[in-house]
Amino acid sequence: xxxxxxxxxxxxxxxxxxxxxxxxxxxxxxxxxxxxxxxxxxxxxxxxxxxxxxxxxxxxxxxxxxxxxxxxxxxxxxxxxxxxxxxxxxxxxxxxxxxxxxxxxxxxxxxxxxxxxxxxxxxxxxxxxxxxxxxxxxxxxxxxxxxxxxxxxxxxxxxxxxxxxxxxxxxxxxxxxxxxxxxxxxxxxxxxxxxxxxxxxxxxxxxxxxxxxxxxxxxxxxxxxxxxxxxxxxxxxxxxxxxxxxxxxxxxxxxxxxxxxxxxxxxxxxxxxxxxxxxxxxxxxxxxxxxxxxxxxxxxxxxxxxx
Length: 307
Fold this sequence. Notes:
By secondary structure, this protein is mainly alpha-helical.
């Protein structure tokens, strides 16, 4: 014979799996609606999106007191968020390189082709023009993460390192001065990269701390909702117990009334016995009168018929 508990558990699992899919789908749809590039306040928006999606999940969840399925939903939402952030980063890097290449083709390439940088003081001008590219890209992409912009600028500049060295070699500097300048430029690039990485690490650490605080908030919300559910259940159980006691009281009152009636009948048995005796007396009287009444009735009938 199938167990009711097992059937209920299977039903709850299926319902919760459906609730997870719907909640995650809702979260994904809201994130995709933000578009790429993601807004600056994406982290804040994502937290609100996830909260709303989890509320919808909890409305449809069945017997998920330990939040097993809710944690599954949270994990899938977070995974989609991480994947979206990666895609956004790739898009922004590509956009930065395209903008840098466009500015390079307009501002620097013509001077390289004309040999402007190979003249006296040309290398200094070349370095200043590249610094201008890094400044302009920040102005052209104000909403883009500064770390991505800076790193893209340095990586783009690194593509033209051979050109940088070629221009440097054609200046009126000695070989020793050229090597010193190359080392200086490389050192400056590495220093800028190190500073950017350090800033990014601090930013990530700050975000990780905020993320932990957010997860703690979610956990507190779950505990609060669980407490409210338990209180609601306790209140419903109390009302049910009161209803049960009231019903039992009414049943007892009816039983008492029936018991009293039965006791009353047992105390006066003659009343009950007289009824069949009276019926029997009337019946006997009626039967005894039939021989007398019959002939009289027939005579009366014949008299009236002849007249």
